[in-house]
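Our preliminary data section would be incomplete without showing what the modeling component actually yields. Below, a chain of 342 amino acids is followed by its predicted structure, encoded as tokens that our downstream tools consume directly.
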Amino acid sequence: MNILITGIHGFVGSNLVASLKEQHTIYGLDIVSPQKEGIVHTFGWNELEKLPEVDVIIHLAGKAHDTKNTASARDYFDINVGLTRKIFDWFLKTEARKFIFFSSVKAVADQVKGNQLTEEDLPDPQTPYGQSKLEAEEYLMAGQHDNTTTRQHDKLPQTRHCEDDEGGQSNLIIKPSTRDDQKVFILRPCMIHGPGNKGNLNLLYSLQKKGLPWPLGAYENKRSFTSIDNLSYIIRQIIEKEIEPGIYQVADDEALSTNELFRLITESQNKKPRIWNISGKLISLLARMGDVLHLPLNSERLQKLTESYVVSNQKIKKALGIEKMPVSARDGLKKTLESFKG
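Predicted structure:
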């Protein structure tokens, strides 16, 4: 198949190219367009008219959550919503059959209430990142239905006025839809990791590499992760099989605590873990100081490292007809940690 990947030069895009290039023809769309191995050609965002006919579009391009809080809300909406609208509108005009959008669990909740997050939970994102991802999802979902009428103030693409029975101008509009053979998949992964990852895992790895102890041992939590290998497997299944379209959360089968994660890091470095059980009140005070002094440990990062955030993957496994993901959470993390040694 011919596959177009937006944001192809990022962490996820680079790994997907490695996973798909042997069986499929890959084209890229990105801010910059250097040509790389495994990609027939990478186009810039101002070259949509030059794009070839493709069978599948994987839309990765977007603005990631900024833990330093330097981005404005407009930045998130301009990119996460604006680019999604642009490429989805192009998809509607093409012969492509599948559109795969990478959203995030943060489009649903910044904190999990209850034992785990499921697709049945009502979205209530509290940050511009999550809100922008949710708005992009809503735009795609609006385009999946048959042509229907809606009020003029709704923000939907390719709208037009129509006349009422008495010859006057109505305030109803027609909203576009996908063809019967076009399917839209919205994936909500939790924390993705793998070779080339530069997020919090890399920070923890660097901390331990310097011989520093882990000071957050007093916190007990459970977090879900997404191995890039499991993610690539899901993408291949969606591309190559007839899977029911819709919204799917993506996560490894097992949830791990941050303390367990730190132990895996020390094992990968052939060291013994040094875990300190410092008072949570003192740690919170230090994190607030980090907010002011722009230190590596701030309130937002402390919350990410210590909160429980368990994500259910039952719906996607049922759709794929599998009982468990190919790679366990621990094995996936070990592979990621091995890649940091380079």
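Confidence is low (pLDDT under 50) at residues 146-175. The radius of gyration is 22 Å. Preliminary results of this kind motivate Aim 1 of the renewal.
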